[in-house]
Design a protein that fits this description.
The complex is a heterodimer of chains A (about 500) and B (about 100). Chain A is of the alpha/beta class and about 500 residues long. Chain A has 15 helices and eleven strands. Helices cover about 35% and strands about 5% of the residues of chain B. The chains are: A alpha/beta (about 500), B mainly alpha (about 100).
C-alpha cells in the first residue's frame, strides 16, 4: 500500500477496498513511528486531517470523487493553510496559525485530497540541506547521517520514507529538484506563472514556483492537473487554457531530440554521479531519443546572478515581518525602532539574515546598477542560452545536483559551497523554464549505503506534458523510482 | 570592493536587524565570501542588454477597482502580537 501510485490508491478508494480514513490513519501511524527521527513534519493536526478523510469518504460514496479525492498529501510549510500552524521553518512564524488557505491548499481541498500535515523546510526556503530550519534538521531516509537536500527537504524525506502518498514543494533555485535528487523521488518545478503563489510565503517573487514531489511522473501529472490554473490573486499567474498533464504520458519517445549541455558535464560534477547520468542517457537512446550536443555558456554565471536577485527580492519580501501584525515580537524593547530590530534579530536565523543583508547591500544607493541591474541583464543572457538550445532539441537532460546527499554539518558553515549545490538548477528558475528531477540510479558510499542520483529534465516553456512523457517512458523501463530505503517498512 | 564591519552594521540598520559587534565580525567574513562570488558578474560585458525581470516579459495585469474581499479583521488580529479595540499596538511614536 505505501508504495502504491496515486492512480492505484484512487482505484482502491473507488472500489471501496480501503476508505480514505483507513488510508490516512495508516500514514498517520507511519508518521508517529518514523517522524520522531526523520523530522519530516513540523505540524500535524490529526483532527483536521481525519475530518477531511471522512468528508472524502462521503464524497466517494456519493460518486463525486476526483482523481485525488481521499488521498493524503503532505504540504510544505510554506503554504498558508487555514487553521494550521504555518511557520515557513522560522521562529518568526512559530505561533502563526493560517487565517486563510493558499491557492495550492485550496486546489487540493477542492479536489478532495487530505492534508496530512506541514513539512519541514529550510527557513523561508533559504537553503539546500534543510539545516537552516528552526524546527531542526531532517534526516535523509537513505542514510540518516546525511541531509535530504533543501529547501523542500521535509517533503522529500516524507515521500522517500513513504510518510505520505505525495507532497508539494516550492522551487526558487532548485528547492524541489535538488531534494528530489538527494532523496530518490520525482519533483517538478513548473513554468513560472503556472501555479498561483497566493498564500505561498514569498522568498524571491520573480523565481518562486510551487510544484509536485511524488514517487513517479504519472503521480506528478495528476497533481499538476490540480495545482495549475489561473488565479487572479497572483499578479504573475498566467491566463491559459487548463491542460491535462496526463495526456501525453504514454507517447513513444522515438525521434525526441535530447540536448546534453556540455557545461553540465564539466568540472565540478562527481564522477559517480556522471556515470549514473550517462547510463540514463543510454536508456533514452534505447527508447529512440536522438542525442544532441548543446551549450549553455552562461551556466557558471547563474549562481552570482541568483545571489544578487534572490536576496534583493527577499530583503524586500521579508520586510513585512516587523513584529506588528503577525510573527515574533521581542519581549523587551525601548521604542518602535528597537522593537523592529530586536524582533527581527530574534525571529530570523543566520542564513536568512545573511541574505537580507546581501539584498539590502546590492539594492543600496550607489550599488544598484553594478549589482541588481547587471544581474538582470545577465539573467537575459542566461534565458537566451536556453532559447538558442531549444532550437536544436526538445528537452535537455543532465544531472540535477553535482553530488549525492552530503553529511549533515558538512557544508553548514560554508554558505558558498552550499550555494554551488544548485549550479545545474538555478538557471532554470532565472529563465522561468520548467525543470524536473527523476531517480536515475544509485551510488554506493564507503560504508555500504546506497544514495540516489537524480536526472534533471529541462523543458521549454509550458512543455511539462512532454517532460512528464519523457520521465514516464523512462520509469516504464527502469525501477529506480519504486525502490524504497531500508528501515522504513 | 571589500566590505567592512561598519558596512555590515549600516546594512543591518537599514534592514532593521540588531547585530552585536561579535556578530558583525562573523557576518562580515561570510558576506565577503558571497560578495566575491557575486563579483564574477563584472567580467561580463552587458552593454545594451535589456534587463530581464520576468521570463514572459509580461506587463502588470490590472483589475476593476471594486471590493473583492470581505472584512476579516478579527481572524487577522487573532494572530497579532498586541491589539486593542481592533487596532494594532506599537510603542508610542508621538509624544
Amino acid at each position: 500500500m505505501i508504495n502504491s501510485s496515486l492512480k492505484q490508491l484512487g482505484t482502491l478508494l473507488a472500489e471501496k477496498k480501503i476508505s480514505s480514513v483507513e488510508l490516512t490513519q495508516q500514514f498517520l501511524d507511519r508518521i508517529d513511528q518514523h517522524n520522531p527521527e526523520i523530522n519530516a513534519y513540523i505540524a500535524l493536526d490529526k483532527e483536521i486531517t481525519l475530518a477531511q478523510a471522512k468528508a472524502a469518504d462521503q464524497r466517494i460514496a456519493q460518486g463525486s470523487a476526483t482523481a485525488l479525492t481521499g488521498i493524503p498529501i503532505a504540504q510544505k510549510d510554506i503554504f498558508v493553510a487555514k487553521g494550521w500552524q504555518t511557520t515557513c521553518g522560522s521562529k518568526m512564524l512559530e505561533n502563526f496559525i493560517g487565517p486563510y488557505d493558499a491557492h495550492v491548499i485550496k486546489q487540493f481541498d477542492t479536489a478532495g485530497a487530505v492534508n496530512l500535515g506541514k513539512t519541514n523546510m529550510d527557513e523561508f526556503a533559504m537553503g539546500s540541506s534543510n539545516e537552516t530550519s528552526y524546527f531542526g534538521k531532517v534526516q535523509n531516509p537513505w542514510d540518516r547521517s546525511r541531509v535530504p537536500g533543501g529547501s523542500s527537504g521535509g517533503s522529500a524525506a516524507a515521500v522517500a520514507a513513504r510518510l505520505c502518498a505525495a507532497a508539494t514543494g516550492t522551487d526558487t533555485g532548485g528547492s524541489i529538484r535538488q531534494p528530489a535528487s538527494l532523496c530518490g523521488l520525482s519533483g517538478l518545478k513548473p513554468t513560472y506563472g503556472l501555479v498561483s503563489r497566493y498564500g505561498m510565503i514569498a522568498f524571491a517573487s520573480s523565481l518562486d514556483q510551487a510544484g509536485p514531489m511524488a514517487k513517479s511522473c504519472e503521480d506528478m501529472a495528476l497533481m499538476m492537473n490540480v495545482m495549475t490554473g489561473f488565479d487572479e490573486r497572483d499578479s504573475t499567474s498566467l491566463q491559459r487554457e487548463k491542460e491535462d498533464y496526463t495526456r501525453d504520458l504514454n507517447k513513444p519517445l522515438a525521434g525526441l531530440r535530447v540536448g546534453l549541455p556540455k557545461e553540465y558535464f564539466a568540472e565540478g560534477l562527481g564522477a559517480d554521479v556522471a556515470k549514473v547520468i550517462e547510463e540514463a542517457i543510454a536508456e533514452y537512446r534505447k527508447l529512440g531519443a536522438e542525442i544532441v550536443d548543446i551549450s549553455l555558456p552562461n551556466t557558471q554565471l547563474s549562481i552570482p546572478v541568483y545571489y544578487v536577485l534572490a536576496p534583493a527580492e527577499a530583503s524586500s519580501n521579508l520586510s513585512r515581518f516587523d513584529g506588528v501584525r503577525y510573527g515574533h515580537r521581542a519581549a523587551q524593547y525601548d521604542d518602535l525602532m528597537d522593537m523592529y530590530c530586536k524582533s527581527r534579530a530574534e525571529g530570523f536565523g543566520a542564513e536568512v539574515k545573511r541574505r537580507i543583508l546581501i539584498g539590502t547591500y546590492v539594492l543600496s544607493a550607489g550599488y544598484y546598477d553594478a549589482y541588481y541591474l547587471k544581474a538582470q541583464q545577465i539573467r537575459r543572457l542566461i534565458a537566451q542560452d536556453f532559447e538558442e538550445a531549444f532550437k536544436h532539441c526538445d528537452i535537455i537532460l543532465g544531472p540535477t545536483a553535482p553530488s549525492t546527499a552530503f553529511k549533515a554539518g558538512e557544508k553548514a558553515d560554508d554558505p558558498v559551497s552550499m550555494y554551488l549545490q544548485d549550479i545545474y538548477t538555478i538557471a532554470v528558475n532565472l529563465a522561468g523554464l520548467p525543470g524536473m528531477s527523476i531517480p536515475a540510479g544509485f551510488t554506493q558510499t564507503v560504508d555500504g549505503k546506497s544514495l540516489p542520483v537524480g536526472l534533471q529534465i529541462i523543458g521549454n516553456y509550458f512543455d511539462e506534458a512532454r517532460m512528464l512523457n519523457a520521465g514516464h517512458a523512462y520509469q516504464q523501463v527502469t525501477d529506480w523510482h519504486s525502490r524504497m530505503p531500508e528501515g522504513i517498512a | 570592493m571589500s566590505l567592512t564591519t561598519a558596512d555590515v552594521k549600516r546594512m543591518a540598520h537599514l534592514a532593521r536587524i540588531e547585530v552585536s559587534d561579535d556578530d558583525a565580525e562573523a557576518t562580515l567574513k561570510k558576506l565577503s565570501g558571497i560578495l566575491k562570488l557575486i563579483e564574477q558578474m563584472q567580467s561580463v560585458d552587458t552593454t545594451g542588454i535589456q534587463p530581464m525581470s520576468h521570463s514572459q516579459d509580461l506587463v502588470q495585469r490590472l483589475r476593476e477597482d471594486v471590493v473583492t474581499e470581505t472584512n476579516q479583521r478579527e481572524s487577522f488580529q487573532a494572530i497579532a502580537p498586541a491589539v486593542e479595540d481592533g487596532l494594532y499596538l506599537v510603542p508610542k511614536v508621538i509624544e
